[in-house]
Amino acid sequence: MMAVAKYQSFTRAAEEINISQSSLSTQISKLEAELGTKLFERGARLITLTRAGEEFLPFASEICDKEATSREHMKMFTAPDRGVIKFGVFPGTERYDFFPRLSEFAKRFPNISLDFYEAEGTVLVDMLKNNEITCAFCCAPDVCGDVKFFHLYTDEMVLIAPPDHKYAERGEISLEMLRGETFIFSEIGSLYTTVLGCVMNSLNNTGGDDGITLLKTHGTSLLTNMGMVAAGFGLSMCSEKAAKNYSAIGYRTLKLAPPIPRIFGIAVAQGNLSQPLVKNFINFICGFCK
């Protein structure tokens, strides 16, 4: 209908949309029959819109636009090189040299749009399960349920201590030596549950009645917690890369014995793994990081 209204000719309209004139005329007649009114006046030389046709034209245009939009959106399920990837990152992702990988992907596939969302790892996993995002860069312990994890980096946890702490000048410390200490962790994310689990298991295995004290913060960033450590509120732990990034705050870092690994990678909801777009993204990023 749009082409006929534009050219006022079945012949030119049929050429524009690459179908036969008879087929186009039949389609218009079927549409008029369905609507119960004429949309065009067929003149000897020109075809013009009727009053009803003029009223219907904006609706027809909107329908065409929505169809084009829906077809483009559906390409993410069929085409590996176009579409939209809603990607989640946690605060501090920049420490892991991951953004250059994403930048290379964006350059290689200019028809794929990357939309970014930032939240803590456990929140990102919930967003994956609710189909609010396509993929996420997060830590392995955050991942659970119907989520597939692709390993990219392994870092080690380090102890963060105030500069005047009794262990501050040591290069390495065993978990057993942390008995009776106060630890600062945010309640959001897997960091405190994972690390404290390792510490408590170690303390339980060595016996004794006293464990550790937890100073649990609510929604604070890693940077805030490190500032609290530097000020003497207690100890904390984080990945070695994160510790190096914020070292100007004034705390001391100590290696742990035995080491506690911190594994990072891409998480994808199982239901999205069959999409060619997602497969392309995962293969590129995982191959780039090897």
UniProtKB/TrEMBL annotation:
PROSITE patterns: HTH_LYSR (PS50931). GO terms for cellular component: protein-DNA complex. Keywords: DNA-binding, Transcription, Transcription regulation. Residues 1-50 form the HTH lysR-type domain. InterPro entries: LysR_HTH_N (IPR000847), LysR_subst-bd (IPR005119), WH-like_DNA-bd_sf (IPR036388), WH_DNA-bd_sf (IPR036390). GO terms for molecular function: DNA binding; DNA-binding transcription factor activity. It holds the Pfam family HTH_1. It comes from the Bacteria. Belongs to the LysR transcriptional regulatory family. This is HTH lysR-type domain-containing protein. It comes from Cloacibacillus porcorum.
